[in-house]
Amino acid sequence: MNATSVGALLLCRAEPAVVRPAAHLLRERLLIAPAGEGWSVLVPEGKPWLYGSEPVDRVVTGWAGALAVGANWPVLALWWDADRSGCTLAAGFRRTVGYVWLADGTPVGEDEAMRTFAARLSLDPVLDLQALDPLTRQDPESDSRARLLALAGFLARTGLMLPAGLTPGEPADRLREVARVQPGAVQIEWAGWRDAVRAELDVVEDGPLGPWLRGPRARLLGACQVGAGVPLTLWAARRRSGGWAFAGALLIAHGALGLAYDRLRA
User: Fold this and answer.
1) Strand, coil or helix: what is 39?
2) Strand pairing of 30-34 and 186-188?
3) Which helix (H) or strand (E) covers residue 145, if one does?
């Protein structure tokens, strides 16, 4: 690596169609492309770490965390500059975990980080962790770029296959040009708050709560809430019970909103 070799890649363990709505929320110009079975790669078109006060690792850590919140798939950020390289894994609302290597390949992370890394990617806690162990040991023949390449190569066993030319350690400009010509590559850019709200709703609906927000389960839940709320409210009115009347009205309102949301989103 040299002084101009600063860049990052965001690897998402999900198909591009699933990742795209969440990526819109970053409000950044990005390129997204398939990266093997069940993986996508996001390539930044801009270089905010060169024009702001935040270094590349902090920028991409924030991006990874924002992508992973509310999603049921993890995000792995690979980053590098003239002095260091590293990886950061974000998964849901859990604290991000990362590992760093100096330019000469010296590991400066904690072994516990690799164990957490393996667990959150659902890797084998014995065999895969043993395969990751060399990345945490001294190796005079491996610089920081070689460490990133070894990590990407290891993840090939999970289905990751970076497109040709999208190599960790390359300058951001080269990565952007290579990503543009990849089959299936799509440009992502900020399109305003209306599209952002739609994208955020898509992300939530693709998560574990999705079936209860849209679809047969959501409609059944809404109908049951309205069906239970109406007689409860009438009973409370006869008994002049303000508390039960409020509970019944809340059930009716919640059920009606759920049914309306399902219909509008459809």
Assistant:
1) coil
2) antiparallel
3) helix 144-154
Distance CA 158, CA 205 (A): 26
Torsion angle, alpha carbons of 75, 152, 46, 63, to 10: 20
- In the sheet that 30-34 helps form, which strands lie side by side, from edge to edge? 97-102, 84-90, 75-80, 7-12, 40-44, 30-34, 186-188
Q: Domain boundary at 197, 226, 255, which?
A: 197
Q: Is 166 helix (H, G, I), strand (E, B) or coil?
A: coil
Torsion of the alpha carbons at 136, 139, 140 and 144, rounded to the nearest 10 = -50
Predicted confidence (pLDDT) per residue in 170-208, tens digit: 988 899 999 999 988 888 876 655 555 566 666 656 666
What band does 2 get if pLDDT is binned at 50, 70 and 90?
A: very low
Amino acid at residue number 101? W
Instruction: State the total domains in the chain.
Output: 2
Q: CA-to-CA distance for 237 and 84, rounded, in angstroms?
A: 69
Give residue 133's domain range: 7-197
Indicate whether 202 belongs to any domain.
no
Tell which residue, 176, 159, 153, has the closest CA to residue 42.
Answer: 176
Q: Alpha-carbon distance 249 to 234, whole Å? A: 10
Residue 204 vs residue 103, higher pLDDT: 103
Lowest mean pLDDT among 36-50, 101-115, 188-202: 188-202
Q: Which residues contact 240 (CB under 8 A, 6 or more apart)?
A: none
Q: Identify which of 75, 85, 60, 106 has the alpha carbon closest to the alpha carbon of residue 149.
A: 85
pLDDT tens track for 129-178: 888 999 999 998 999 999 999 999 999 989 999 998 899 989 888 999 99
